[in-house]
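Regression test case RT-17, inverse folding.

Input:
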């Protein structure tokens, strides 16, 4: 049975979806078979990041309405074999209910080593549906007060849904900018305010951002790919030391 991880954030702009796509590719590099489910109804973007947008015919709403089988709405990422995507509905009114989402994921998780659920930012209805099937959660934040505060609110809501395994990724980290902002004494203060165990730190990386915009995987000898590979190892239960940017 695959492990189901909801990846979420308190506010938009943290790079959560980029992290989700990059982490999916990193898990595949470890030999895992991975499904990414985009739950951001009306605002889907994972299909663009994984280079499958031109192939989409069906999405998760079509499965629920009976228009297609689950297999027909799951698309392989051509640049990353063994990475698959189930796209979100194009229209917000087709948002999936939490109970139906859980039933669907329970059927799918026997076919994958990992299912990553890309959750819409905040704690609205899409958040509840995204969290419903999850075994664990990963919070994505930037090292700035508004982002971290939102992260804390999401963590509390996840705990309300009885998700106990909650970890934190600090994304887009630039040490010089962090010091200049002077909002926190150090990264430990960010982690303490977010209230979650640190899973990893992904450095600001323009090459990674450009790759996602072009539908290419985050890979190769670039800082973000290196950090995501180490985070993927931790998700697979492998001990890897935590260092800045890693």
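Golden output:
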């Amino acid at each position: 049975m695959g492990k189901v991880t909801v990846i979420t954030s308190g506010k938009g702009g943290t790079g959560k979806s980029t992290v989700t796509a990059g982490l999916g590719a990193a898990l595949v590099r470890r030999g895992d078979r991975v499904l990414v489910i985009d739950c951001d109804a009306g605002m889907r973007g994972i299909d663009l990041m994984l280079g499958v947008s031109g192939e989409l015919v069906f999405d998760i709403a079509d499965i629920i309405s009976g228009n297609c089988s689950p297999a027909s709405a799951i698309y392989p990422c051509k640049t990353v074999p063994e990475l698959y995507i189930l796209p979100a509905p194009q229209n917000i009114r087709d948002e999936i209910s939490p109970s139906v989402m859980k039933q669907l994921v329970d059927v799918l998780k026997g076919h994958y080593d990992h299912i990553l659920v890309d959750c819409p930012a905040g704690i609205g209805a899409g958040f509840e549906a995204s969290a419903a099937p999850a075994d664990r959660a990963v919070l994505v934040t930037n090292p700035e007060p508004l982002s971290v505060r939102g992260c804390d609110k999401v963590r509390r809501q996840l705990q309300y849904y009885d998700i106990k395994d909650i970890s934190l990724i600090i994304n887009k980290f630039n040490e010089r900018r962090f010091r200049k902002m002077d909002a926190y004494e150090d990264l430990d203060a960010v982690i303490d305010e977010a209230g979650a165990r640190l899973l990893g730190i992904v450095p600001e990386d323009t090459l990674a951002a450009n790759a996602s915009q072009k539908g290419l995987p985050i890979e190769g000898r670039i800082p973000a790919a290196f950090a995501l590979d180490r985070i993927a190892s931790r998700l697979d239960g492998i001990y890897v030391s935590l260092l800045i940017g890693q």
